[in-house]
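Supplementary Methods S3. Input chains for the assembly prediction are listed below.
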Amino acid sequence: MLENLKEKLTKSQVFRSIFRHGFPDNDMNRAYVVFSNVFLHIHPVKVRRSALRMRYTFCLGGITLFLFIMLTVTGIWLMFYYTPYTGLAYNNIQDLQFVIFGGNLMRDLHRFAAHGMVLFVWLHMTRVFMTGAYKAPREFNWVVGVLLLVMTLILSWTGYLLPWDQLAYWAVTVGTKMASYTPFIGQNGPWGAQLGFLPTNDIMFMLIGGTVVGQNALIRFYVLHCVVLPLFVTVALAVHFWRIRKDGFSGPL
Amino acid sequence: MENKVTREIFPRDARKSYGLVELMKGSAPIVKKEPEDTVYTWPHLIMIELICALLVTAGLIILVQFVHAPLRSLADPSTTPNPMRAPWYFLGLQELLVYFDPWYAGVVLPGMIIVGLMTFPYVDTNPKGVGYYTFSERKFAVFNYSFGFALWWVTIVIGTYLRGLDWQWYWPWSDHLVHMNPALVTLVPLHIVFVNLLHVSKDVGKAICDVLFFAYFAIGMAIPYFFMRKFYDSMGGARYFVFMIFFLSMMGVGLKIVLRLLFNIKYIVVTPWINV
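Predicted structure tokens for the full assembly:
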């Protein structure tokens, strides 16, 4: 009877309109499922048995991607409760901690997945380095990977400000202060003052929208953290994966 | 697909037409391809990815039962915490502020690290060691990567555990609530050392330092060029120059840390605009 039901289901117009093929329990459908599904088609239909060896990749890149997805999900959830306003941000985080059901869990998951992502990007990079996977013809994908590392760090750091507590405020104050030491375009940097840069027009001012970290910095970091950088990362990830397929997998062949 | 190996095994006779067929264990015929050891992505790879995702999720959920995201008191611009720590992944850079001025440690050096990382595939001309773990076939590359990241992680550990009030050095057993006396250490620029040692004027001392600084890069550039010709020839001029600039800068960071910690040297080169 179960077989009958499965047959009826997978042959129905609705199922077929969505999946275009039957359940992937034979070779034809196993091929169909990968190349007709937008999410699965980043894979090749078939992979070499040796490429599945865990001790080559240790799944590090995959784990990094999964953490990014997890951060997106928990991050969007947190956005429902968060106001990027200096008068409310801290209270919102306290609400998440003490009032909102699941608030602590989501915030903790977001925080530690973020730490994890930084760590796993590095581990993945180390794996790619140690297996020489960045060598020709995969040079450019390494460069994309370095950009992804930089974006991961900036994402992590912009998120650091959002709780608007002492930890956040001072870490970002010190960090953005560094920008004012940029040669030529920072007011404290070499040749900055000589070129006419002041606290009110240099690169740090542009970054935080003021001379001190305040409301403007908070909204800037919020938009960068929630919209701009995730978009950039997503695009760079698409290029990163595309290039793996185009340039070939480095693993044991 | 016909390749060199199959052509060797089955040399073609131009007068005959061929249909090369081989019996293999498998669930489907493979057309126009050599026998290969492949499996379908679904379910083999998809399952690994799914299990991996589940393990990471489970691991994180278990982890957050024991550790929680910190939340200190409300941001207060008038109260500066002491010590003030950057997030852990930037602690290496924060620690470097001890050894370099902010324009270098906070801006130029991070920029150089990023660009330097990007140059890897373009300066590494060793064709060996792709697709497997090896140390013996690419010792120098592995050494460089490990040295750079050892520096990164060691400074993170120092910043996390060995720095206390006023960013002074605190051992785990020292009292973290008592301010160290910063007057115990007097930092001097290198040219003052020469002034005291050789009894020369400040300007001569500075000139010696400038010469030493440029000699470091010049001699560093020259040694492999003259004595490790194979290394230079394998890279060519442009790659060699790019690589050596980053390599010598990285080694220079290590050298400066040693000079600062052992001899209390504040700057090597002092100019009216920048000090290194």
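Chain B has a mean pLDDT of 88. The first helix of chain B runs from residue 4 to 9.
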